TrEMBL record:
Domain of life: Eukaryota
GO MF: nucleic acid binding; tRNA-intron lyase activity
Name of this protein: tRNA-intron lyase
Annotated gene: LOC104247713
InterPro entries: tRNA_endonuc-like_dom_sf, tRNA_intron_Endo_cat-like_sf, tRNA_intron_Endonuc_cat-like, tRNA_intron_Endonuc_N, tRNA_splic
Protein family according to the UniProt entry: Belongs to the tRNA-intron endonuclease family.
Catalytic activity: pretRNA = a 3'-half-tRNA molecule with a 5'-OH end + a 5'-half-tRNA molecule with a 2',3'-cyclic phosphate end + an intron with a 2',3'-cyclic phosphate and a 5'-hydroxyl terminus
Domain tRNA intron endonuclease catalytic: 120-200
Coiled-coil annotated spans: none
UniProt-listed SUPFAM superfamilies: tRNA-intron endonuclease catalytic domain-like
Length: 243
């Protein structure tokens, strides 16, 4: 199943404005302004100026929050997005409510305390983002993420993503029996998405710091629903003259 572009010229616009270039511009802008994100339980609030607001929207990081300020905008980042900007791109700092800066290890410990499976989810998120996929929450489809080839305004999401780990029994509960596969595949098919399984192998069980991410191996698998109609032979017509 290939990309489904939204309207004429959408593919041309996407090719002329690659996500990789937008992310580089965003990274540079955030570093230059010494941007700081405020940690708020399971989210990080990031203040952005006019230029950064445009870049965050184009790169699809966070969701804008309505404010009364004219020249500044707040964005609500999920934990995976915030940690990707802090740890992977090194372009924002994360502070708590006391305005104390948290280094990567401290932010990691906070996020893993809020979600036990955060290391697996972040590895999946960063794996796709590093390949220039736009990654958004997949909760409305019963999956971890959905992946877009470019901005959602230009193209529909292509993959419904589940991040699983053999060391994480709770994650595998979702696809433990055949009925789980059947329901998930039927849902993905009904919304024209391919199910992408990211099987994450933890070569070390300790996840006390983000350095453990180097020991995670990601295996990609796409699963599609087989239809008997697609494999059936064309019915031959009887020709009496060939008796």
């Amino acid at each position: 199943m290939g990309p489904r572009w939204k309207g004429k010229g959408a593919e041309v616009k996407a090719l002329a404005d690659p996500i990789s270039e937008i992310v580089i511009q965003l990274q540079s802008s955030l570093i230059c302004s010494n941007s700081r994100g405020l940690l708020s339980d399971t989210n990080v609030l990031l203040k952005a100026d006019t230029e950064q607001t445009e870049l965050l929207n184009r790169a699809c990081f966070g969701r804008p929050r309505v404010t009364a300020e004219k020249n500044e905008q707040w964005f609500q980042l999920c934990m995976e997005e915030a940690f990707y900007l802090q740890y992977s791109l090194k372009c924002i700092k994360v502070v708590d409510h006391d305005d104390t800066e948290l280094n990567s290890d401290e932010a990691w410990r906070h996020m893993t305390s809020r979600r036990e499976d955060f290391p697996i989810l972040f590895k999946a998120f960063s794996h796709l983002r590093s390949k220039n996929w736009v990654v958004r929450s997949g909760s409305q489809y019963g999956v971890d993420f959905v992946a877009y080839r470019h901005h959602p305004a230009l193209v529909h999401s292509e993959y419904a993503v589940l991040a699983l780990s053999s060391q994480n029994g709770s994650a595998n509960d979702r696809l433990r029996v055949w009925s789980d596969f059947h329901c998930t595949l039927r849902l993905c098919g009904s919304v024209a998405k391919t199910l992408l399984i990211l099987d994450i192998e933890q070569q070390q069980s300790c996840a006390t710091s983000p350095s453990c991410l180097d020991n995670y191996v990601v295996e990609e698998r796409t699963i599609t629903r087989w239809s008997p109609e697609q494999g059936r032979e064309t019915k031959a017509k009887f020709d009496p003259s060939k008796k």
